[in-house]
Amino acid sequence: MAAGPEQVGRRFESSFLTGGRLVALVILTVAVVLEMRPGTSGAHLAVLVALVANFPAWLMWTLGAQDRQAGQLAALAVMSAAGGVMTPFAEAANVGVFVAALGAGVAFELPEAIAVSVLGPAAYLLAAAVAGHHLSLVAGPAVSAFIGLMLGIGRREYKEHAEQAAAMTVMRERAELERARAGVLDERNRLAREIHDVLAHTLGALTVQLEALDVMCDADPDNVEALREGLRRTRALASHGLVEARRAVRSLREDADPLEAQLAALCSNDRASLEVSGARHALSAEVTVALYRVAQEALTNATKHAPGAKVSVQLDFGDECVALAVANGPGSELPGALSASGAGYGLDGIRERVRLLKGEVLAGPTDEGGWLVEARLPA
């Protein structure tokens, strides 16, 4: 798999730093040798020992794993001490003190970084005291160590902030993906709920109609015209179910017909009156579908249990909520043809649907012997 731009950038940065450290080691070694030639006695021997110790420590720091390990800490400590030992005899070695403090500030917590940074000036004091140099010159390594430490700490904080920002970006992207996924699932659930309601109404009516046809065939098999009429009604119910399924899917779209137009078509089919009041305004697809289902369920129940009763539908647009009321008067004493259909969970279903939208549904008998269903939803 090809590396992405970020991986390529990190590899380039790592290679650049490694090359720079190796070049710095070579320059430092050459500068110290030219300023104070190593030897086998006195200060020359001290410089030789310091160079021999500094070289592998610098390589370990450069080529080793760049995480916070004990080996890296030891390498930086040796670099700092070696730089401090060589500085009284070769001022160029002061660079080693600076680099060790810088590396410690970048890679380690403050206590470890300070300990590494202090080693350079401390080693300088020891070497200068042995060699008889003026101890006031320790200011040079001390300043170098301090500047390197401060720059290292600043670099470390910058890297940590950059990592935190990258982590926050990843978290935001994940949250966006989760929100998008939740939206898709919510849309699927809404669609499944609508199709379920349509099938429940349509299949229930078809079942009753087919049972009636079966009874008719047993009672009067020669009445062809009655059988044909029953088949026409059955076919009409199936066609109506398909239309309702398409309408349910379309109602989930924001460009569906206004609620009052949908209610007008529903009331015309059920021979109910419709009254709309209040300042009309656009409703969300969820609220539109929920109120339409309330009206559909209430009208279906009126047809089932109060055939022939007068039914009225009232839709009121308020400033903060929209209200729907479906009322029917007392019907005939005989139950309707569809009174036995359904599982009796229609009102519970619309209550749950409306409750999900922070609304409420009230249903109960009226003083006139009829039935009233009311629903209120936030506008």
Number of domains: 2
Principal-axes shape call: rod-shaped
Report the total helices: 10
Oligomeric state as shown: single chain
| Terminal Cα span | 53 Å
Helix content range: 55-70%
What kind of sheet is the major sheet? 5 strands, mixed
Give the strand order of the largest sheet, numbering strands 1, 2, ... along the chain: 1-2-3-5-4
Uncertain runs are 334-344
Number of strands: 5
Mean pLDDT: 81
Structural class: alpha+beta
The portion of residues forming beta strands comes to 5-15%
Order of helices and strands: HHHHHHHHEHEEHEE
Q: What is the radius of gyration?
A: 43 Å
Topology, element by element:
Layout: H1 5-35, H2 42-63, H3 70-86, H4 94-107, H5 110-131, H6 139-219, H7 224-251, H8 259-270, E1 273-278, H9 285-305, E2 311-317, E3 321-328, H10 346-356, E4 360-365, E5 371-378
Parallel strand pairs: 1-2
Antiparallel strand pairs: 2-3, 3-5, 4-5
Helix pairs in contact: 1-2, 2-3, 3-4, 3-5, 4-5, 4-6, 5-6, 6-7, 8-9, 9-10
Annotation keywords:
379 residues, alpha+beta, five-stranded mixed β-sheet
What do you see in this structure?
The protein is an alpha+beta fold and 379 residues long. It has two domains: 5-175, no CATH class; 257-379, Heat Shock Protein 90 (2-Layer Sandwich). It has helices at 5-35, 42-63, 70-86, 94-107, 110-131, 139-219, 224-251, 259-270, 285-305, 346-356; strands spanning 273-278, 311-317, 321-328, 360-365, 371-378. It has a five-stranded mixed sheet, with helices on one face. Helix 1 packs antiparallel against helix 2 and helix 3 packs parallel to helix 5 (110-131). It is rod-shaped. The model is unreliable at 334-344 (pLDDT under 50).
